[in-house]
């Protein structure tokens, strides 16, 4: 391979790296901003997939207490994966069992 071709490969790899790093930093910055704005009453999802509503925030210890349908759980603040913006956007997943769906719709 010629030196020009090797140079172009290095330029392409460098450009791809810069673009990926910039995108990751932007995503991290947005996540950090959401975590700073975390407030009592926010609906969040933890890294383990647990959905809950923040009932208490302890900035000294870096913990949040979640209300998960009456069960209060304490988590590290860094275990919050995301803040759910709108509760009405949750989707209902169909299991394909039409009898169960009929019973649920009647109730």
Layout of strands and helices, then pairs:
Elements: H1 3-36, E1 43-46, E2 51-58, E3 63-68, E4 71-76, E5 80-84, H2 98-106
Antiparallel strand pairs: 1-2, 1-5, 2-3, 3-4
Précis, in short:
By secondary structure, the chain is of the alpha+beta class.
In words, what does this structure look like?
This protein has 107 residues and is α+β, with helices and mostly antiparallel strands. It folds into two domains: 1-37; 40-86, SH3 type barrels. Helices cover 40% and strands 27% of the residues. The chain is built from two helices and five strands, in the order αβββββα. It has helices at residues 3-36, 98-106; strands spanning 43-46, 51-58, 63-68, 71-76, 80-84. A five-stranded antiparallel β-sheet has the order 4-3-2-1-5, with helices on one face. The longest helix has 34 residues, at 3-36.
The percentage helix is 40-55%
Strand content: 25-35%
Q: What's the number of domains?
A: 2
Number of H/I helices: 2
Keywords:
single chain; 107 residues; alpha+beta; SH3 type barrels; five-stranded antiparallel sheet; rod-shaped; disordered C terminus
């Amino acid at each position: 391979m010629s030196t020009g071709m090797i140079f172009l490969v290095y330029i392409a790899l460098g450009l791809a790296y810069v673009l990926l790093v910039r995108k990751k930093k932007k995503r991290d910055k947005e996540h950090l901003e959401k975590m700073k704005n975390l407030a009592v009453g926010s609906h969040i999802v933890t890294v383990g997939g647990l959905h809950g509503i923040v009932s208490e925030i302890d900035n000294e210890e870096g913990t949040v207490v979640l209300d998960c349908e009456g069960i209060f759980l304490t988590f590290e603040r860094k275990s919050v994966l995301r803040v759910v913006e709108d509760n009405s956007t949750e989707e209902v997943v169909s299991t394909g069992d039409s009898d169960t769906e009929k019973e649920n719709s009647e109730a």
